[in-house]
Amino acid sequence: MKQSIKEKIISYVFKTSNQPILFRDLLSANSHYNEGMYVDAGKLGFRMNIIKAHIAYLIICALIVMPLIGITHYFLKHLNFHISIVGTVFVTAAVFLGFNFFKSWIRDAITLKQIKKGWAVHFPFFAYEKYSKKVEEIYNEALRKDIAKKDLEQYVLDAIIKES
Fold this sequence. Notes:
Number of strands: 2
Structural class: mainly alpha
Distance between the termini: 34 Å
Helix content: over 70%
Number of helices: 7
Strand order of the largest sheet: 1-2
């Protein structure tokens, strides 16, 4: 099976745990992810290697910036050098700001991947794309009703089956 570039970056940058994701942690992570919130990496069993993230970002930047420099150098070499200096400042700022976007992007990608992995274990008969929002609503309702931890799984499964 061929991996996409995104999958290769994720497998290079992140270390994932072999332990299964707990049911309650999956529900919490799904709820937070659907709301666009930060999801605790420990609950989903992954950890970022920041050095490898910098290396991956460096390679991506080199593949994008180097040809850009070559092209713009050809056109800017006869113009005022101040334009090149100002352009360099903006490109440098973009590269350093871009790392935060890159880090956020790959973290969201691994979060979704781990949620889907846990989903396949706990909800094998319910497609993630179709049921993730419904399960989020059921989970939030269970929290409001203060359903006990031991009864949570049965409550959620019963509610999904009723809605199907």
